[in-house]
UniProtKB/TrEMBL annotation, chain A:
One of its GO terms (molecular function) is glycolate dehydrogenase activity. This is Glycolate oxidase iron-sulfur subunit. Component of a complex that catalyzes the oxidation of glycolate to glyoxylate. Binds 2 [4Fe-4S] clusters. PANTHER family: GLYCOLATE OXIDASE IRON-SULFUR SUBUNIT.
TrEMBL record, chain B:
The keyword Flavoprotein applies. Belongs to the FAD-binding oxidoreductase/transferase type 4 family. Keywords: FAD, Flavoprotein, Oxidoreductase. PROSITE patterns: FAD_PCMH. The keyword tRNA processing does not apply. This is Glycolate oxidase subunit GlcD. Its cofactor is FAD.
Length: 421, 459
């Protein structure tokens, strides 16, 4: 099994921090709670103090290191590109190793005890209840992200689907000759909560004539476990996904979830070897669609009249930090029924952040509230994005703010624009 | 270590959650942009002037040093708790209290971040010009205490030119106000100006009254590449000589351009050995004319290329060259000393030549860029601390740079202040008598020397 880097391996990056404080302008957690321990500079300083043995893993250190969305905003604004989110994730793994996972991911601890898959699911849909939730496979990203105690917190969550997406669709959908073959990495959000996004994904690729493989034995990408500090879980999931995604040759592995894209495209790249090759093949769906000339194809379709809906776009951190900002917008702008408007601070984190919103729901709400304000000010009716996690958080934030906007995946809008079969 | 009794007292004054002796917090408030570290005994987060006053009374009675801290982005160690004691953070005092559009005056608490204030007034068509490069994260309190400057100072002046009143907690725990919201005021000594730039040694600023301007209608940015630093410097004096004061006149020397070339894919032609970024602001029609005139004036001075931005995005792209400097310098060497000397405008080329000679003499790369319009040169001495002897050579080089600036009628610091970084060099610039005059003021106001002791002057 490939191993993730240790905190010790990050010493050089930690020492690149020149303490300028620029990250204070970019860290959403600091924006919600102005204390030095909450900002990247503080977290890096604490990580260094831990490495140097100046401070132990005491409560306050755990608390400060838990106060990070792993959104990477600080790194983008840092003159020396100090990868605070990676440093914090490594520090959390160290904490989990030494103190157990209880501080960060109670839900994850259960998996460590019983790593076997349990692929049974609730029969009914309906509201997302704690009961239903417990029936999710234990290593699903949702369980990793939202350990049971969290569900009593009053958050609005989308209903859980009765039949997961991967159970509904064939494992292979043949496309046209000469077109690429891709594997669809569905991720947990689409599989268990938003199967309609998965269906829209398949329709878009069918429209282009691409052959799609949807491996049944794929698992969670592991990003929620990264956030929880559950290093071994990440490594196990990566191994399982590597096997699932490589038993048939494919040109690309496509994702329609920003977190999955970062999980497979970045975390796996760090694992080296075969994982790196898998990572290199990973594409965000909209990058792929733009490469395949979808906007031009849409332009050729006969124009339908009708009112256009005002739509704004939220940049998921895990795409923004990987430089993917133009393609989702390009697709949105190419949709005939959409009037695109840019909102202020489209690129700041929505406040979900893996296990962050579990343990710091109040702060998470505060960060989300800012976002909801910007959506409102933009005058848009819909906020589209490219990540089921963000959709959930954005909708929760809009609901708390009493707004009427809906959060959707760009694929759902694309679906409407494609010709009916 | 402070006694438990004192900590309890602080907790009673401020509330338990606003007083921390957690090691993690002590570490987080032990540094600033100088990258030096000193652990305090306690970090406190007061919310009002009254709380600050109670803290100062206690500190005076118990002889505990107090170190005010804004964002900790200072380059000279002003907020470092060099003697342990209390770090007083203004992070909770971050409200914009009033923006008075009728009188063009605003009142803020010291912890407000500069850019947030700028954005708030600009929404109302008003303008707060001081723009230190740290404006996105530094606080107005820190800006006032350091009298921060920035590129726009050529035309508009520095922080203190916009501060017309303050509320200050004295080192002995009284609350006083200085100046006020009127554009004029000559009653008594000008304490506002005394506190501005006093680096947190004479009082703790708890409220700031700021003068505003109307927001200029538009601005235009030009990037001009020259074949020599002399050409760029002559361009500066020619423009100003023709009574045009641009909003900014930023320059970068040849070495800086070499760094930028290596580190980015921004196109910089080979023949270019200096750059000026010239920005003008004002009414739209008037701007086009001004740009034209500037271009005519400087064309004969060795201009290699001129790029003019037509849109805000294009302007941003031009500034990007300036912004990429900081990161690109690390390619030269991992560690740097960023000195901010200031010389009379016309002496900039001479100063650059001096610095080049010093770099040669000590075999240390030195990269210069800065605000040519006001002669403020950021002299970046690039070293690798791990290489034996390099640190010592750097210190010698820096002292020579200071001496060089003073010989040309300049100063050791145009905007970063003295703090602890430049305290040892003070006698080079300030006569013993003048220094005594300043120390007498400090002693009179802070008899127990508990407010930010050891800053500016060695004692
Ligand atoms: C990347 C970068 C770029 C910079 N660019 C510039 C620039 O262009 N121009 C420039 O002038 N500076 C610049 N600086 C230096 C620095 O940002 C300024 O000195 C700034 O004003 C410091 O503000 P701060 O809130 O961080 O204050 P701190 O660093 O926390 O404190 C600075 C000083 O102010 C005192 N102080 C803070 N708050 C108060 C208060 N309420 N009452 C009394 N004293 C107080 C402190 O004791 C200390 O002596 C830069 C720094 C960085 C890291
Ligand atoms: S911006 Fe980067 S270098 Fe500056 S303090 Fe933050 S992490 Fe450190
Ligand atoms: S990753 Fe995001 S939340 Fe974490 S320190 Fe950086 S900016 Fe802040």
């Amino acid at each position: 099994m490939a191993k993730l880097k240790n905190l010790e391996d990050y010493r050089e990056e930690i020492e690149q921090c020149v303490k300028c404080g620029a990250c204070r302008a970019h860290c959403p957690v600091f924006g919600a709670e102005r204390r030095e321990g909450r900002v990247a500079r503080g977290k890096v300083a604490l990580s260094k103090a831990v490495l140097d043995g100046e401070i132990g893993l005491e409560e306050k250190v755990l608390e400060d290191l838990s106060q990070c969305l792993l959104c990477g905003s600080c790194c983008a604004g840092c003159p020396n590109k100090v990868p605070t989110e990676e440093i914090v994730a490594a520090a959390r793994r160290k904490i989990a190793e030494q103190r157990g996972l209880s501080s960060f991911g109670k839900g994850v601890a259960a998996i460590l005890g019983r790593p076997k898959l349990m692929n049974t699911l609730a029969k009914t849909g309906g509201r997302f209840s704690a009961l239903l939730f417990r029936k999710l496979p234990e290593n699903s990203g949702l369980r990793l992200r939202f350990p049971a105690p969290y569900l009593e917190s009053g958050r609005t969550l989308p209903p859980l689907t009765a039949r997961p997406f991967r159970e509904r669709c064939p494992e292979r959908i043949e496309g046209k000759e000469g077109m690429p073959t891709v594997a669809f990495f569905t991720g947990c959000g689409i599989n268990y909560m938003y199967p309609e996004i998965g269906e829209a994904f398949l329709r878009a690729l069918k429209f282009l004539g691409v052959t799609v493989i949807i491996p049944k034995d794929q698992a969670c990408c592991g990003l929620p476990a990264v956030s929880a500090g559950a290093g071994t879980v990440v490594e196990q999931l990566a191994e399982q996904n590597l096997a699932a995604l490589t038993h048939e040759p494919v040109d690309y592995v496509l994702t329609a979830c920003a977190s999955c894209n970062a999980g497979i495209g970045k975390i796996y790249a760090d694992l080296g070897g075969d994982y790196q090759q898998l990572a290199a093949k990973t594409r965000d769906i909209f990058v792929f669609l733009v490469e395949m000339g979808l906007p031009e194809r849409l332009a050729e379709l006969p124009k339908k009249g009708g009112v256009r809906t005002r739509v704004t776009y939220h940049d998921p951190c895990h795409l923004r930090t990987r430089g993917i900002t133009k393609e989702p917008r390009a697709i949105l702008k190419s949709l005939p029924q959409v009037e695109f408007v840019e909102m202020e601070d489209a690129a700041t984190c929505c406040g979900l952040g893996g296990t962050y919103s579990v343990y710091h729901y109040e702060n998470s709400k505060r960060i989300g509230a800012k976002k909801a304000g910007h959506i409102e000010e933009s005058g848009a009716e819909l906020v589209a994005t490219d990540c089921p996690g963000c959709i959930m958080q954005l909708q929760d934030s809009i609901n708390h703010a009493g707004g009427s906007q809906r959060a959707v995946h760009i694929l759902e809008l694309l679906n409407e624009a494609l010709p009916k079969e | 270590m402070l006694e438990q009794r004192i900590i309890r007292n602080l907790q009673q004054t401020l509330g338990k959650e606003h007083v921390s002796t957690d090691k993690a917090d002590l570490i987080c408030y032990s540094y600033d942009a100088t990258q030096q570290q000193f652990l305090p005994d306690v970090v406190i987060y007061p919310a009002t002037a009254e709380e600050v006053a109670l803290v100062m009374k206690l500190a005076n009675a118990e002889n505990i040093p107090v170190f005010p801290r804004g964002a900790g982005s200072g380059f000279t160690g002003g907020s470092l708790p060099t003697r342990g004691g209390i770090v007083l953070s203004t992070e909770r005092m971050n409200r914009i209290l009033e923006i008075d559009s009728e009188n063009l005056v605003a009142t803020v608490e010291p912890g407000v971040v500069t850019e947030q204030f700028q954005k708030a007034v600009e929404k109302l068509g008003l303008f707060y010009p001081p723009d230190p490069a740290s404006l996105k994260f530094s606080t107005l309190g820190g800006n006032v205490a350091e009298c921060a400057g920035g590129p726009r100072c050529v035309k508009y002046g520095v922080t203190k030119d916009f501060i017309i009143g303050l509320e200050v907690v004295t080192p002995t725990g009284d609350i006083i106000t200085t100046g006020g919201p009127t554009m004029k005021g000559v009653v008594g000594y000008d304490l506002t100006k005394l506190i501005c730039g006093s680096e947190g040694t004479l009082g703790i600023i708890t409220r700031i009254v700021i003068k505003l301007l109307p927001l200029p209608e538009a601005k235009k940015t030009m990037l001009v590449l020259f074949d020599s630093i002399d050409g760029a410097a002559r361009a500066v004096s020619t423009i100003i000589g023709h009574k045009i004061i641009p909003t900014t006149l930023e320059f970068m020397d040849g070495r800086t351009l070499d760094c930028v070339r290596q580190a980015t894919d921004l196109e910089v032609p080979e023949g270019a050995r200096a750059v000026l970024i010239i920005e003008v602001d004002g009414d739209r029609e008037f701007l086009a004319k001004q740009v034209q005139k500037i271009q005519q004036l400087i064309q004969p001075l060795g201009v290699v290329e001129t790029r003019t931005a037509e849109t805000p995005e294009e302007s941003e792209a031009l500034w990007q060259i300036r912004r990429s400097v900081s990161a690109s310098l690390r390619k030269v060497n991992p560690d740097k000393f960023n000195e901010d000397i200031c010389v009379p405008r016309s002496k900039v080329p001479e100063m650059i030549r001096k610095v080049d000679a010093i770099a040669e003499k000590y075999q240390i790369p030195i990269v210069n860029f800065g605000h040519a319009g006001d002669g403020n040169i950021h002299v970046n001495v690039m070293i690798d601390k791990k290489v034996p002897g390099e640190l010592e050579r750097a210190h010698k080089a820096i002292e020579e740079v200071f001496r060089g600036a003073l010989e040309l009628g300049g100063t050791m610091s145009g905007e970063h202040g003295v703090g602890i970084a430049k305290a040892p060099y003070i006698p080079l610039e300030i006569s013993e008598k003048a220094a005594d005059y300043m120390k007498t003021i400090k002693k009179a106001l802070d008899p127990n020397n508990i407010l930010n002791p050891g800053k500016i002057f060695l004692d």
